[in-house]
């Protein structure tokens, strides 16, 4: 059971990070964010990106807030694994 939880948490954060990358790259492809795929991805990713966008304004045409969101996701992943280590004593 413990191994499953470790793998699940790691897989969840890895997939979510990939989703954020795809969402960021979709801004470079015309009309992708307006497609059904883009809208669904936006509904899943925007709740994480929105707080960073409020804190970090864009630098001209460049939005660097997703970089900080990705760093926060990595820290959350490490924290979740550390918490599991504390709970299961691994």
Provide structural commentary:
The chain is mostly helical. Helices cover 77% and strands 0% of the residues. The longest helix is centred in the N-terminal third of the chain and has 25 residues, at 2-26. It starts with a helix and ends with a helix. The mean pLDDT is 92.
Q: What general form does the structure show? A: elongated
DSSP, total strands: 0
Order of helices and strands: HHH
Structural class: mainly alpha
Can you count the helices?
3
N-C termini distance: 13 Å
Q: How many strands, which pairing sense, and closed or not: the largest β-sheet?
A: none
- Average pLDDT, rounded to a whole number, is 92
| Alpha carbon gyration radius | 16 Å
* Poorly predicted residue ranges: none
Strand content: under 5%
The helix content, as a percent range, equals: over 70%
């Amino acid at each position: 059971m413990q191994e499953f939880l470790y793998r699940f948490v790691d897989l969840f954060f890895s997939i979510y990070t990939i989703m954020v990358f795809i969402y960021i790259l979709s801004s470079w492809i015309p009309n992708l964010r307006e497609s059904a795929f883009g809208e669904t991805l936006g509904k899943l990713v925007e709740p994480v990106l929105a707080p960073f966008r409020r804190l970090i304004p864009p630098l001209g045409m460049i939005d660097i807030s997703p970089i900080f969101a990705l760093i926060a996701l990595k820290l959350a992943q490490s924290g979740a694994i550390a918490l599991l280590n504390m709970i299961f004593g691994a």
